[in-house]
Amino acid sequence: MTNNEYGTVNAILSSGPLAEKDWETLRGVRIRLRGLTRDQVLMLRKLVDKPGYESSILAYGVAVPELDTSQATEWSRTAPAGEIDEIVDEIFNLSGMGDDAGKEAYKSVRE
Fold first, then answer.
1. How would you list the strands of the sheet with 30-34, edge to edge?
2. What's residue 2's pLDDT?
3. Where along the chain do its domains lie?
4. What per-residue confidence (pLDDT) applies to 99?
5. Is the CATH code 3.30.2220 the one for domain 18-110?
6. How far apart are CA 109 and CA 66, in angstroms?
7. CB 91 within 8 A of CB 37
8. Could you list the pLDDT tens digit for every one of the 111 residues in the chain?
9. Angle between helices 38-45 and 53-61 (to 10 degrees)
């Protein structure tokens, strides 16, 4: 597509692949992370400052192995403190959020 061409509605609405990245946890476990969809981010915003926020981020953002929220909660309870923080930060980066409000809200919950 050149600078003079515009995309179509179908191109905008097509669900392309989310960004993914292999990641090694602080304990040396290899996992695959993925970015969040806009819909997932909007659902997460309803959970800020509530139990289950961090677990939901992990359940949505860890592609391999797949986790449900109860498994993500257990992982959060047993992991080294920095392990989960790094992973959540990377999930937000893969989502194109960088230092956006979702990431800032997560940081404020951690403190």
1. 20-24, 30-34, 62-64
2. 56
3. 18-110
4. 65
5. yes
6. 24
7. no
8. 556 789 899 888 887 789 999 999 999 999 999 999 999 999 999 998 888 999 999 999 999 999 999 999 999 999 998 999 999 999 999 999 976 545 455 454 454
9. 170
Tokens standing for residue 51: 């139990």
Question: Which residue is listed with tokens 């989502």?
Answer: 95
Residue 83, CA atoms < 13 Å, CB-side half-sphere:
16
Residue found by looking up tokens 């090694």 in the block: 24
Tell me which amino acid residue 95 is: S
User: Mind spelling out the 3-state secondary structure of the chain?
Assistant: CCCCCCCCHHHHHCCCCCCEEEEECCCCCEEEEECCCHHHHHHHHCCCCCCCHHHHHHHHHEEECCCCHHHHHHHHHHCCHHHHHHHHHHHHHHCCCCCCHHHHHHHHHHC
Name the amino acid, one letter, at 28: G
